Amino acid sequence: MKSAKDYLDEANETVPKMAVADAIARHAAGGGVFVDVRDSADIAKSGTIKGAHRIPRGMIEFRADPAMEQFYNPALKQDGEIYLICGAGGQAALAGKTLQNMGYTNVTNIGGFPGWKEAGGPTEEG
């Protein structure tokens, strides 16, 4: 039987992590799609990355699968650059592993939103 730690360890082994400063630079350059995988209540409390797509982790499979027409988010491309953020990095890693399992090839965990905000990354209201 697998534990939550087992799932998280596997995700952290396969989903690359990027330093917040590098992610902010990538955002400023207009590179990639930024996705906040927290639920709407958490985003409402703290805000999110400016222009980030808001896709709760529980919906990631539906939003990432073009066959799920009523749910699919066309900003998500299997070969596109996707940068995931959450509260502390764990949910982003797990969502990234799910995307990899679905054939996404360029998924990066940029950690937790508090780090983004502290580093001066652009934000918007939740």
TrEMBL record:
SMART domains: RHOD (SM00450). Residues 28-125 form the Rhodanese domain. It comes from Sulfitobacter porphyrae. SUPFAM superfamilies: Rhodanese/Cell cycle control phosphatase (SSF52821). It holds the Pfam family Rhodanese. It comes from the Bacteria. PANTHER family: THIOSULFATE SULFURTRANSFERASE PSPE, THIOSULFATE SULFURTRANSFERASE RDL2, MITOCHONDRIAL-RELATED. This is Rhodanese-like domain-containing protein.
